[in-house]
Specification:
Layout (H helix, E strand, L loop, with lengths): L8 H12 L3 H14 L4 E7 L5 E6 L6 H6 L12 H4 L11 H7 L2 E7 L6 E7 L2 E8 L4 E7 L6 H4 L5 H18 L4 E6 L2 E6 L5 H9 L1 H5 L1 E9 L2 E8 L4 E2 L5 E5 L2 E2 L3 H11 L8 E2 L1 E6 L5 E2 L10 E2 L2 H18 L11 E5 L14 H6 L9 H10 L13 E5 L8 E6 L3 E5 L3 E6 H16 L8 E10 L2 H7 L3 H6 L4 E3 L4 E7 L9 H15 L1 H23 L6 H12 L14 E5 H7 L4
Parallel strand pairs: 1-7, 12-15
Antiparallel strand pairs: 1-2, 2-6, 3-4, 3-6, 4-5, 7-8, 9-10, 10-15, 11-14, 12-13, 16-17, 18-19, 20-21, 21-22, 22-26, 23-25, 24-25
């Protein structure tokens, strides 16, 4: 008896729809992308009951004739690719020819379209994948698609939908993403007769961000002018250091104006922010990356969310470089550029003849004990001073880059509690976290003294053995030399087993060692050895300066506090400590007025 049979066209379309149409937001995404490809200047989206009852997308694009209107609901019918060469260099949002027939197979589907020069349009009605009617229609130029009763004939899929509010939140996110990608187009979104937003076309990206993310977010962005590096063009906006979110709701990356998710972009942003981004936080980013379509494959995910690069490391390196330059190139508070002065250093930051650059109270505050800094950093400073490898470490021969104190644009008010100082700026109240400020100052001093020397690990009395899964062990083996340079004395110890006999000086041997090494392995796979080595080295310095900063007393008078702020503002990254937490918090006069009910 024959067991294998060819599926009916309707059933095959419903199976394909399971990959393309996950939820109502998938329908909105596909229809909006078709409108963009059609050259629309305005796109209006209306939904009811979270998209399950009705989704209507109207655009003023080029429209279609009757023949094209009938073909567009056939599987694998598309105007966007013709040959395999076109598939290797996709420049449009859609390309597979699966979206409309997949949607029409699981809903009651009505397409109304008219070309600009045509006297009348065409209406195509499809019910559950079956063509019901084709007729003339008197429509405005463009295309209107109505999708009603989504998944009415696929109850197994319909019962997995979430609450209407949840489904609509996904729809809203899809419209927002595409509105950001195309600020020159006008967008509107209506839900159950309520206008959610209406965005005029022709505005710039910053104005579109202001309309969708709010004025406060837009005011804390730094612009990335159009920059090309290694054949990759980058532009957009990044949140200034100290601006982050607990989720990725404001982290947008567009590749050739297509919204995508990629670990390459995530690691590049984390590398650019470095210690300015707290662990577990996401940056605020609106990035537009341009690359030759032949260097990227967008046909790897049914929903087109993921992409693959021919050279992901080159893309990551270029994006990290451009974003890091933008973050370090402009400060929210205007201060003069630091003047580097190389001088001998003992236990003071500056010698007596140079102390006129820094007020006396700040000189007292900047005294520190070199024993609290990583041995590798001190040794590197001694080598740089001419002592050579293996020479005794003498802080008096170390070298430091001393920055000219910056002008302080604040009026000192008073000390608050055991940690904070209050100041008045042009825009409102500014709160200084003195301990975080010390950490930043000491951290940048220590970084200036160290080089790329490997970390010196601390020998464990009892080595730790880690039993790994075969796949993890195979992935770890090539990176064992890198781990040893990071101060992790890891070596093979039998089948799928690793022995660790030393740890970096800022790690404690406890039950989390295996978890930490697993995290390092993940970083090595995704970010590459140099970035991970630098992050570990920075962690060592940050841990040392945090201990040192806790020992320095909070300024007791306005002169000491002003000197501290002056040194802080002369740092490369003055607005956050090495852990990414803010050093300064501003409360604007407008915000204070709102809290007191004033206009």
């Amino acid at each position: 008896m024959q067991k294998i049979k060819v599926m009916s066209e309707v059933l095959a379309s419903q199976v394909a729809a399971g990959e393309v149409v996950e939820r109502p937001a998938s329908v909105v995404r596909e229809l909006v992308e078709n409108s963009i490809d059609a050259g629309a200047g305005r796109i209006d989206v209306l939904v009811r009951r979270g998209g399950t009852a009705l989704i209507r997308v109207v655009d003023d694009g080029v429209g279609m004739g009757r023949d094209d209107a009938l073909l567009c609901v056939e599987r694998h019918a598309t105007s966007k690719i013709r040959t395999s060469g076109d598939l290797a260099a996709i420049r449009t949002m859609g390309f597979r020819g699966e979206a409309l027939p997949s949607i029409a197979s699981v809903a009651r589907f009505v397409l109304k379209t008219r070309e600009r020069e045509a006297l009348h349009g065409t209406e195509v009605v499809v019910d559950g994948g079956q063509l019901v009617a084709v007729s003339d229609a008197g429509e405005a130029p463009g295309t209107q698609v109505e999708v009603r009763s989504l998944f009415y004939n696929v109850p197994a899929r319909r019962k997995f939908l979430r609450a209407e509010a949840t489904e609509f939140s996904h729809i809203e996110q899809q419209v927002r993403v595409h509105a950001l990608a195309y600020p020159e187009l006008a967008f509107s979104l209506t839900h159950d007769e309520r206008l959610v937003f209406q965005l005029p076309g022709g505005s710039g990206l910053l104005e579109r961000i202001r309309g969708l993310a709010g004025v406060e977010v837009a005011e804390r962005l730094r612009e990335i002018p159009e920059t090309t590096e290694a054949g990759i063009t980058v532009q957009g906006f990044l949140g200034e250091p100290g601006t982050s979110r607990s989720n990725r709701s404001l982290c947008y990356c567009f590749l050739n104006r297509r919204p995508v998710e990629s670990a390459v972009f995530t690691m590049a942003l984390r590398g650019a922010y470095g210690e300015a981004l707290p662990r577990g936080q996401w940056p605020v980013a609106f990035l537009f990356i341009g690359i030759d379509p032949g260097e990227v494959d967008v046909n790897v995910h049914p929903a087109k969310r993921e992409v693959r690069f021919r050279s992901s490391q080159a893309v990551q390196a270029a994006l990290t470089s451009v974003c890091a330059a933008a973050l370090q190139g402009r400060r929210a508070v205007p201060v003069p550029e630091p003047v580097p002065v190389v001088v001998p250093v003992a236990r003071w930051v500056v010698p007596p003849e140079q102390r006129t650059l820094i007020p006396e109270p700040e000189q007292r505050a900047l005294r520190h004990d070199w024993s609290d800094f990583p041995a590798a950093a001190v040794a590197a400073a001694a080598v740089a001073a001419g002592g050579g490898e293996g020479a005794p470490v003498e802080p008096a021969k170390a070298v430091a880059a001393v920055r000219k104190p910056a002008e302080v644009p604040f009026r000192m008010l008073s000390r608050l509690g055991d940690v904070y100082w209050l100041m008045e700026g042009e825009e409102g109240l500014v709160v200084l976290d003195c301990r975080a400020a010390r950490e930043r100052i000491l951290y940048e001093e220590a970084r200036a003294r160290r080089s790329g020397e490997p970390l010196a690990g601390q020998i464990l009395l009892s080595p730790i053995t880690l039993q790994l899964a075969p796949r993890e062990f195979d992935l770890l083996r090539p990176h064992l030399p890198a781990l040893r340079r990071m101060g992790v004395g890891a070596s093979e110890f039998g089948a799928n087993t690793v022995m660790v006999d030393s740890l970096p000086p800022f790690w404690e041997a406890d039950g989390s060692t295996a978890e930490r090494i697993s995290g390092l392995l993940a970083d090595l796979r995704e970010a590459g050895e140099p970035l991970t080595l630098r992050r570990l080295d920075d962690d060592a310095v940050a841990a040392a300066v945090a201990r040192q900063a806790a020992k320095i007393p909070v300024p007791s008078d306005a002169a000491e506090a002003r000197a501290l702020v002056s040194s802080l503002l002369s740092c490369e990254m003055p607005y956050c400590c090495p852990d990414g937490n803010p050093t300064l918090i501003q409360i604007s006069f407008q915000e204070l007025a709102r809290k007191f009910g004033r206009r």
